[in-house]
């Protein structure tokens, strides 16, 4: 006797639901490049959702093409437009080279800014074009523009550090051994340029290549060529091994964090220039000899001119502490003789308390003495003419000042009379 198997209506319904849940799709599967990009974006959205669930799928703040072009026009050589578009590495390079070696790179960006803006805004057109690149190239293709930029910036950083090393003994120390850090700065410049935009790579590859190529300096006695060789080997290593696509936009740091990093990098860069100028820079003296700048600065600080200036500043500060900064500024302003009163008294040869009658008498006397028609000697006539003009100007200045003071005194007296 057999048993009869029965199927409940719920099981039937469940089976039908499963059958309906698995329809066949005619849509082709995504390519490996698209799948990788989708996973990268999904991971980015997951991290964003963990930090701020409300902003998981929101686009970044949109950047204006007009603002980017304005910043490019008025501050492009310092990389202001790159700062606006969150391309901080690019901005630092532009600040160090004044727009890519005296504005050459800055001018070349005239037609690239729209693409930079679309990248910063994650514009669908840019994303579509970027996906097409991912499908066409597994790794970023060779770019002569970027490669030359890597070699140039790597050479600049290495050369700057080499120049910053003191050539003389400092505090009893010979710092010439620091030249072994030159490959580090060469590779840093190459890595920095290589990580701009949607391309990236690790640092240690080009760092190792730079140190392997650096001993060639002992065979190539010209430091320029040895540095160039070091940069070429390091850049080729980065381009052939390290370079990869940056599939997601770089993380956008907070304004304070970005400012601290960029300011610190610029200060370090300027410090190397300062070290070069202070320790290795020279100026020419009267005899044509070269004097190191640090010695010239030491001599200047010990000179009588600097001592007198320092004492004058110290006396001014003490005067301000007792009489106030307003009175101090008033005294400084009067000592500058901006209205020419003191010089006019000196030209006419009268005291500061001279009356208008005394000023007029001195003016008439000097005018007759230095009148060009009174001077017969041709050699002295030009000098007399100049002196005559000075007398005329001095009298005009003092007459105007005296007249204004009389008018103010009269007005003050009239106001007092009205009040009383």
Automatic annotation (TrEMBL):
Main location (coarse class): membrane
What residue spans carry the Basic and acidic residues bias annotation?
43-53
Alphabetized CDD domains for the sequence: DnaJ (cd06257)
Query: Per its UniProt record, what Gene3D superfamilies does this chain match?
Result: DnaJ domain
Q: Which domain of life is it from?
A: Eukaryota
GO CC annotation, single? membrane
Q: Which residues form the signal peptide?
A: none
Q: Where is the J domain?
A: 343-413
| Disordered: region residues | 1-57
Q: Which InterPro entries match?
A: DnaJ_domain, J_dom_sf, TM2
One Pfam family, short name: TM2
Which membrane topology term applies here? Multi-pass membrane protein
**Which UniProt keyword terms apply here?**
Membrane, Transmembrane, Transmembrane helix
The residue ranges crossing the membrane are: 66-85, 91-112, 147-165, 177-194, 201-219, 225-241, 262-279
Its subcellular locations are: Membrane
Q: What does this protein do?
A: May function as a co-chaperone.
Protein's name according to its UniProt entry: DnaJ homolog subfamily C member 22
What species does this protein belong to?
Drosophila guanche
């Amino acid at each position: 006797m057999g048993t009869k198997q029965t199927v409940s209506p719920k099981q039937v319904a469940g089976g039908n639901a499963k059958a309906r849940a698995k329809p066949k799709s005619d849509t082709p599967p995504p390519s490996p490049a698209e799948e990788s990009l989708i996973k990268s974006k999904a991971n980015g959205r997951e991290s964003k959702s963990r930090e701020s669930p409300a902003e998981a799928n929101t686009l970044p703040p949109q950047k204006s093409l007009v603002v980017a072009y304005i910043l490019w026009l008025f501050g492009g050589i310092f990389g202001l437009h790159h700062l606006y578009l969150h391309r901080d590495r690019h901005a630092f390079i532009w600040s160090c080279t004044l727009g890519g070696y005296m504005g050459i790179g800055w001018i070349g960006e005239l037609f690239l800014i729209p693409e930079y803006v679309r990248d910063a805004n994650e514009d669908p057109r840019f994303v579509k074009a970027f996906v097409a690149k991912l499908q066409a190239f597994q790794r970023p293709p060779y770019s002569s523009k970027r490669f030359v930029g890597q070699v140039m910036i790597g050479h600049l950083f290495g050369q700057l550090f080499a120049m910053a090393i003191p050539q003389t003994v400092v505090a009893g120390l010979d710092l010439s051994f620091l030249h072994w850090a030159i490959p580090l700065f060469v590779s840093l410049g190459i890595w920095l340029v290589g990580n701009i935009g949607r391309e990236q790579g690790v640092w240690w590859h080009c760092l190792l290549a730079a140190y392997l190529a650096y001993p060639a300096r002992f065979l190539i006695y010209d430091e320029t060529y040895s540095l160039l060789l070091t940069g070429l080997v390091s850049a080729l290593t980065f381009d052939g091994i390290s370079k990869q696509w940056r599939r997601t936009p770089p993380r956008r740091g907070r304004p304070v964090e970005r400012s601290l990093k960029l300011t610190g990098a610029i200060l370090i860069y300027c410090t190397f220039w300062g070290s070069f100028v202070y320790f290795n820079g020279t100026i020419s003296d009267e005899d044509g000899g070269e004097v190191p700048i640090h010695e010239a600065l030491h001599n200047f600080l010990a000179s009588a001119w600097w001592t007198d200036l320092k004492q004058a500043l110290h006396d001014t500060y003490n005067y301000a502490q007792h009489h106030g900064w307003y009175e101090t500024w008033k005294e400084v302003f009067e000592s500058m003789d901006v209205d020419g009163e003191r010089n006019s008294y000196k030209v006419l040869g009268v005291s500061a308390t001279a009356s208008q009658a005394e000023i007029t008498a001195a003016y008439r006397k000097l005018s007759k003495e230095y009148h060009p028609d009174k001077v017969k000697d041709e050699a002295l006539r030009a000098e007399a003419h100049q002196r005559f003009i000075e007398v005329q100007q001095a009298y005009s200045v003092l007459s105007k000042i005296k007249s204004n003071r009389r008018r103010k005194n009269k007005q003050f007296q009239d106001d007092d009379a009205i009040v009383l």
